[in-house]
Amino acid sequence: QDFSQQFLVQVDALATGLKAVLAQGSSGEERPVFFLSRKLLPWEQRYSTIEKECLAIKWALESLWYYLLGREFDLETDHQALSWINTMKDHNARVSR
Q1: Do 24 and 2 touch, CB atoms closer than 8 A?
Q2: Which of 22, 40, 67, 81 is the most buried if burial means most Cβ atoms within 10 Å?
Q3: Per the database record, which ranges form the Reverse transcriptase RNase H-like domain (predicted)?
């Protein structure tokens, strides 16, 4: 890793687990720095898709805090619904956290 370059965090939530990649490099030529994954707990598997995606983001950012703290970074997810999360009027408490 090169701390002078901006980081990219890519996250995804699956039916039974979460995964994340910390990468660096120019667009389209990112190089992985760190891979993360974990299995969802039984009660987390019952979360809605948007709740799982939010959980994946929270978990990835908490896990990668050492690399990201005080630095600008991009966050990439494949879940389109998250693009309007900041404009939601009634937030689900779990999603808000």
Answers
A1: yes
A2: 22
A3: 2-97
Alpha-carbon span 63 to 58, nearest angstrom: 8
Tokens of 28: 């389209």
Task: Give the C-alpha separation, 83 to 86, whole Å.
Answer: 8
pLDDT at 61 over 80: yes
User: Residue 37 in contact with residue 77, Cβ under 8 Å?
Assistant: no
pLDDT at 89: 59
Of residues 97 and 17, more confidence is placed in: 17
CB 31 within 8 A of CB 22: no
- Give the residue from 61, 91, 94 showing the smallest Cα distance to 76: 61
pLDDT at 47 over 80: yes
